Amino acid sequence: MNNKSRSRQYFTTAEKAQVVAAFQRSGLSQRDFAILHGIAASNLQRWVNQSQIADESEGHAALVEVPNLLARGVGSRAYRLHFPKGFTLEVAGGFETGEVRALAQMVQSL
């Protein structure tokens, strides 16, 4: 059996951050970058994941504002009809009377 003695390389937190930053600038795959720089691809993958988690926990995560499409505008009307058996029908303004009547009849038949 051939035992090659390999010295283990340890990286400080700052060194790991530098490697991750260099990887992100490189445009290479994790595997290719790791081979080129003589580090284990699994280590690079772990460091990249840890870096992303750290960024998110420090408030660097991107937030996207989404409009509330369900909010009712000023002056919009809604009708809430309560039926026996606990059914409730809520209808936003703008429906025709015939449509509301048809919906109410369907709810009553349940």
Give helix % range. Answer: 40-55%
Q: What is the arithmetic mean of pLDDT?
A: 75
Low-confidence stretches: none
Cα-atom Rg, whole angstroms? 31 Å
Topology as H/E string?
HHHEEH
Secondary structural class: mainly alpha
Helix tally equals 4
Could you characterize what this model shows?
By secondary structure, the protein is mainly alpha-helical. Among the domains are: 13-57; 78-108, no CATH class. The chain has four helices and two strands; from the N terminus they run H-H-H-E-E-H. The chain has helices at residues 13-26, 30-37, 41-57, 97-108; strands at 78-82, 88-92. Helix 1 (13-26) crosses helix 3. The protein is rod-shaped. The chain starts with 12 loop residues before the first helix and ends with a helix. The model has no long low-confidence stretch (mean pLDDT 75).
Please outline the helices and strands.
Elements: H1 13-26, H2 30-37, H3 41-57, E1 78-82, E2 88-92, H4 97-108
Antiparallel strand pairs: 1-2
Helix pairs in contact: 1-3
Features of this protein?
mainly alpha, two-stranded antiparallel sheet, rod-shaped, 2 strands, 46% helix, 110 residues
In short:
The protein is mainly alpha-helical and 110 residues long. The protein has four helices and two strands, in the order H-H-H-E-E-H. Among the domains are: 13-57; 78-108, no CATH class.
